[in-house]
Amino acid sequence: MNRRTLLLSTAAALILPGTIPGAARATAPVDPTVPLPIDPATVVLRLSSSGGFVPRNTDISSPPQLVITAAGEVYTPVLTDAFPGPLVTPIDHRTLTPAGVQRVLLAAQRAGLLADPPPSYDAETTVADAPTSVLTLTTAAGTVTHQAYALGMSADGADHEPTAARRALADFVRAVTDLATLAGDELSGPTGFAATEYRLAAETVNIADYAGNDPAPTVVPWPASAGIDLATASTCVRLAAERVGDVLAGATQMTFFADHGSVYRLAVRGVLPGDPSC
Question: CA dihedral in degrees (51, 53, 57, 62; nearest 10)?
Fold first, then answer.
């Protein structure tokens, strides 16, 4: 080995791995993030359904399937097949870490669902009177809403959506509704959500129409503390939970309310972040 070769070999040995300018920047992994809205209370994901062959005022009584805020607050309904079930559908509250929120939004980004405008989800279907799935995603860049009729209800099953756009949306909806799997340890366990306000609509019923019904309906007085007459609540009103919480807490789907000589059936649920005013 000549003197020149020896000097070059010694210099190369003295350069430690990762000290070459720019080498670490070129190879270090980068965790991408989706910019969030400034207000942490902003709903970044809302999954719901609309329309279909459903009873009157279902849009008021049925909570969205999933709500996630920028701060990681998560709300999901607790559904039951029992009848009569509770008049007010219980809601579970959980929290996502910031990494968990990003995991959800990055999944939406990979599915192409943050691009605006959204694609068309129109497709021929033989399914009648089905609901429309509505997925709304909000980031710092804005809001994108996806609406697909009879999503996951094709004759060939949920895995056979007729277009690529519908398949991508259906796959994401399946993933995000299994949030525990998608988010893993970034998701806390559930606790009960205590509403501070309710959305409510009332319609009159003829109690005689329920003669012989099993179970029979229960009629209870509408409390004066509510501050409204049910006759004025045929569309939608908001009420503070402190005014009606006690009477609604024990009510079932077969609990009706007597007010000023009439009997009413209520559609009601707790107000969640991002809900319309009424």
Answer: -70
Indicate the helix (H) or strand (E) that contains 169. Answer: helix 164-177
Q: For residue 160, how far is the Cα from the chain centroid?
A: 24
DSSP state of 89: -
**Residue 187 is encoded by which pair of tokens?**
């998701």
| Whole-structure pTM value | 0.85
Give residues with Cβ within 8 angstroms of 236, minimum separation 6: 60, 199, 200, 201, 278
Q: How far is CA 118 from CA 70, 77, 226, in A?
A: 21, 27, 43
Element containing residue 92 per DSSP (H, E)? strand 91-95
Q: What is the pLDDT of residues 201-250, one digit of tens each?
A: 999 999 999 988 889 999 999 999 999 999 999 999 999 999 998 899 99
CA dist., res. 228 & res. 236, Å (int): 12
Angle at 273 between CA 272 and CA 275, to 5 degrees: 70
Q: Cα(130)–Cα(153) distance, rounded to whole angstroms? A: 8
